[in-house]
Specification:
The complex is a heterodimer. Chain A is mostly beta strands. Chain A is built from no helices and eleven strands. The radius of gyration of chain B is 14 Å and the shape is globular. Classes of the chains: A mainly beta, B mainly beta.
Chain lengths: 114, 115
Amino acid sequence: DGGITQSPKYLFRKEGQNVTLSCEQNLNHDAMYWYRQDPGQGLRLIYYSQIVNDFQKGDIAEGYSVSREKKESFPLTVTSAQKNPTAFYLCASSTGGDSYNEQFFGPGTRLTVL
Amino acid sequence: AQSVSQHNHHVILSEAASLELGCNYSYGGTVNLFWYVQYPGQHLQLLLKYFSGDPLVKGIKGFEAEFIKSKFSFNLRKPSVQWSDTAEYFCAVNAPGNAGNMLTFGGGTRLMVKP
């Protein structure tokens, strides 16, 4: 089955702790994205990567970090510097390139900070 | 920077009622427009898209959307909703040439269809 997997589905974290969310795709897509979804605010872009070993900040990158060491993997770390980390996090991928290509989304991870 | 507005945050309809969800964007140049749907417990999935050509776009499950350039709008419509259309709907915009082919999303509209 081709697709995007995110783990875990639910994640609880104590204040002051870093936590890493996993995103894996077997679609052979070059581009990968991380979004944060909050009620009434839609999806906001945190980071994106168009190619391995390269990534760019999105609109709300503060308090987050990413890496792209492998084409199929784009983990997101929510650091203790993120002021309001409780949210639903969505990972997406696309074939990339200059023209727009459809983004496919994973099932999401719901992070709750206790 | 582009932005997308969805003015209806919550919509409640009875089955067989007609649906229209508003979407307005702010960007002066050429845009690609999308509607995504998120059914309860499921992945976000593409409902329909507009790149160019006929401004009336038909998508899956009987949905359609009309691009009106002069109004910067891309409203989603369905003549007769079903209970299974209960979901959250997101309008999104992509400006060709933006680095990373990024999407800008609206705040979403939660639709509840009463049986």
